[in-house]
Amino acid sequence: MTSASPAARRGPLAVTEALARRVMGGEWGDGTSLPTEVELAEQLGVARTSVREALSRLKAKGLLVSRQKAGTRVLPRMQWNMLDEDVLRWAWSGNDRVQMAQHLMQLRRIVEPAACELAAASAPDAAIAAIERAYRAMDAAGMDPVAYAGPDLEFHHAILSATGNPFLVAFGATIEAALRTSFELSTRQPGAPRKSLPLHRAVLDQIWARKPAEARKAMEELLGLTESNIQRGVAQAANSPTG
Fold first, then answer.
1. 65 forms bridges with which residues in the sheet?
2. Do 104 and 181 contact (CB within 8 A), yes or no?
3. 110-141 pLDDT, tens digit each
């Protein structure tokens, strides 16, 4: 008796994962029509309803589009919802991790220094205090990268919130997956949390001092260290047997 495929055993979510990775991996290029639901169900050894649900999920995330009489096809990569947590994870599991890391850092370099500048110029004391609470939690985490990651993420979220700009605050929630991926890679380096802590402190101090230009510069320096750690983390992941 033939054993069921992993997708068949785990249901619609696993079917979504299987199809997403085929799209992300380039098996079906931009504009390519996918096999029919019946054909995909046969290939994966699952029910047609599972395939239909998976395709709906991928359409919602901007990877696919369906047209009457034209079937389902792959949308151009530039139309994908790349800041969706699942899409980011699927893309990260592909072969272009280095480019993905570069793009994430470009995004952070555009947004975060400017956010520090705004926070230093106009944030109320209570908002800056929230940044400091996150910093103190990072300090308390010591050398534990797992314990450090949560407050590190909160530190950057708090800066965006401190701007008082509702679009930046909403953007912070949107890029959480991107930031988390960056943190996970950058903290692969031995001692990375402790080495980055003084640079986080410098960002906090300049925001408290109400010095916008200096706060921007401090964040740029922090992101420079982060980018260096990420590049090494990507290389380590590429060389890891499970990477």
1. 73
2. yes
3. 999 999 999 999 999 999 999 999 999 999 99
- For helices 97-122 and 125-141, angle between their N-to-C axes, nearest 10 degrees: 140
Structure tokens at 92: 């990260």
pTM as predicted: 0.78
Distance, CA of 54 to CA of 18 (rounded, Å):
9
Q: Which two tokens stand for residue 220?
A: 């740029």
89 CB-side CA count, 13 A: 11
Query: What six digits make up the tokens of 65?
Result: 């589009």
Residues 6+ apart with CB under 8 A from 170: none
- What is the SS3 string spanning the chain? CCCCCHHHHHCHHHHHHHHHHHHHCCCCCCCCECCCHHHHHHHHCCCHHHHHHHHHHHHHCCCEEEECCCEEEECCHHHCCCCCHHHHHHHHCCCCHHHHHHHHHHHHHHHHHHHHHHHHHHCCHHHHHHHHHHHHHHHHHCCCHHHHHHHHHHHHHHHHHHCCCHHHHHHHHHCHHHHHHHHHHHCCCCCHHHHHHHHHHHHHHHHHCCCHHHHHHHHHHHHHHHHHHHHHHHHHHHHCCCC
